[in-house]
């Protein structure tokens, strides 16, 4: 009779065999991993993610982490009584909100990620996009936005929200070449030293392009892209850039899925080999996506 322990050991060995060609293929390659605020708010979940990032790092993959923190910023604003305005998923960043963003992004969340990686003996370096002029940005000009509730258009000034002008990867390259793991918060600055709140997905994508990354991996509270979010059977496991464009053109993609698909396909056309949307709250999702044939989320390839 075969003992359950023998079965478990065999499964582990099979997983190692499946992972080996991926480890050999990706050794020395660059991955940019973006963590959402929801992914980092739980200490237990962050500890588990740090373990997975540590494993990728220790098998020779060059990891750069980019993180947001919108959920934590909203919670702090609520505690301090600072009203927040979010339009079409974009936060209007006034003076008070920018000061809170500095505290939350470059302070608490960045330090929490570093501490979790330190627990796994990883030499991580905490940065914001302001450090080493990594993210050269400019203030986003007022934009005309359609209000779906009122049916009217209005000019919106997003305040201290920035758009990426250029990525200076020199500091990141030095750190990666010397075995460090950079952890970057989603702030940037212009030539006058004005600091801006910038969308973390955008920063991660631009850094991935600048580093000519093998993969951009977006970790969030969803485990992939669905044609119908209410129907788990409509999950898209693997898409080429052309197939993603077809989904938009044929009307199969709707709502918030459209800009996400368009931004990912544009990224692939600029040299990143693949992009992944996976769950950041499901244990081992990152390792499964990288080291197994089946994966766990949605993979986009050029």
Which class best fits the helix and strand makeup? alpha/beta
Whole-number total of structural domains:
2
Average predicted local confidence, pLDDT: 90
Using the alpha-carbon principal axes, give the shape. globular
CATH architecture of the largest domain: 3-Layer(aba) Sandwich
**Order of strands, widest sheet:** 5-10-2-1-13-17-18-16
CATH H-level homologous superfamily name of the largest domain: Acetylglutamate kinase-like
What would the CATH topology of the largest domain be?
A: Carbamate kinase
Q: Would you count the extended β strands for me?
A: 18
Uncertain segments:
none
Topology at a glance:
Blueprint: H1 4-26, E1 30-35, H2 37-40, H3 43-58, E2 62-67, H4 70-80, E3 85-87, E4 90-92, H5 95-119, E5 124-128, E6 135-139, E7 143-147, E8 152-156, E9 162-167, H6 170-177, E10 181-185, E11 187-189, E12 195-197, H7 200-210, E13 215-220, E14 225-226, E15 235-236, E16 238-240, H8 241-249, H9 257-269, E17 274-279, H10 285-291, E18 298-301
Parallel strand pairs: 1-2, 1-13, 2-10, 5-10, 13-17, 16-18
Antiparallel strand pairs: 3-4, 6-9, 7-8, 11-12, 14-15, 17-18
Helix pairs in contact: 3-5, 4-5, 8-9
């Amino acid at each position: 009779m075969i003992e359950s322990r023998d079965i478990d050991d065999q499964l582990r060995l099979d997983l190692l065999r499946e992972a080996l060609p991926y480890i050999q293929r990706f050794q020395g390659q660059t991955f940019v991993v973006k963590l959402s605020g929801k992914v980092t708010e739980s200490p237990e979940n962050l500890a588990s993610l740090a373990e997975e990032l540590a494993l990728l790092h220790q098998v020779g993959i060059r990891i750069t982490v980019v993180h947001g923190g919108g959920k934590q910023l909203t919670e702090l604003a609520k505690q301090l009584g600072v009203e927040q305005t979010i339009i079409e998923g974009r936060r209007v960043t006034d003076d008070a909100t920018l000061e809170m963003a500095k505290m939350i992004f470059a302070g608490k969340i960045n330090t929490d990620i570093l501490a979790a990686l330190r627990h796994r003996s990883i030499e991580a370096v905490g940065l914001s996009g302001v450090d080493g002029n990594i993210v050269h940005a400019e203030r986003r000009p007022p934009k005309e936005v359609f209000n779906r509730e009122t049916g009217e258009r209005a000019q919106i000034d997003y305040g201290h929200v920035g758009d990426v002008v250029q990525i200076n990867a020199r500091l990141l390259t030095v750190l990666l070449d010397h075995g460090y793991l950079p952890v970057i918060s989603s702030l940037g600055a212009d030539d006058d030293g004005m600091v801006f709140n910038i969308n973390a997905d955008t920063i991660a994508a631009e850094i991935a392009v600048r580093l000519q990354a093998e993969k951009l991996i977006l970790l969030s509270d969803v485990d992939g892209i669905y044609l119908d979010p209410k129907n788990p059977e409509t999950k898209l496991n693997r898409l080429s850039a052309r197939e993603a464009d077809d989904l938009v053109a044929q009307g199969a993609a709707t709502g918030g899925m459209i800009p996400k698909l368009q931004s990912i396909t544009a990224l692939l056309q600029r040299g990143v080999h693949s992009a992944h949307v996976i769950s950041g709250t499901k244990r081992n999702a990152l390792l499964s996506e990288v080291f197994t044939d089946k994966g766990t989320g949605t993979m986009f390839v050029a």
